[in-house]
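hiii, so i know i said id send this last week but things got crazy w the move. better late than never?? heres the sequnce for the chain we talked about at the cafe, plus the structure i predicted for it. fair warning i was half asleep when i ran it
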Amino acid sequence: AYQIKEYLSLLDLLVEIDQIHFPNVNDKDKKIVITQPGLRYAQTEALVNSLLLDEKFNQLSIVERSRVLDRVMSTIKGRMMEDLVLLETKTANPGKQVFQLQFAVGEFDMVIHDPESLTCEIYEVKYSKEVVPQQYQHLINVKKCAETEHRFGKITGKYVIYRGEQTESDSIYYLNVEDYLKALV
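okay and structure toks below
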């Protein structure tokens, strides 16, 4: 597995995005982002084909099998969208820190920290077309926001990137993913 990771890194197919943890911000991990969405899709297709051939999986009812396959596809699509947004944002903002911020419970899917202005923006990335308060529950969490501001400066924006139309809910700005990515160029 390590050799495969090294090989893919040489081909510029992998990029590492920092994952910072609260309360110990010195505890960092790296999230591996695959730069070619087709590669992730091929992995998903192989997983689905493997499931379809599995004897125990085929013992489930068609409703259960369909629910499992829908969940797998939804999870992968969400992960692909999150990875794409992180990668493109990091590439478009070389003078800023772009990372995920992990809390004991929950996370900000993306933080953009400007070390010059001592400010940051916080984001959730959702593979959804719907506006649902649960999507931004961490963005309005007073303790999480206070910890973030203490470490990374004033929060200048709170956003949900999703597949629906641009809107606002409870002072959280919803951005259409396609419009967001086009604006990065």
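btw The CA atoms of residues 19 and 99 lie 6 Å apart. thought thatd interest u
miss u guys!!
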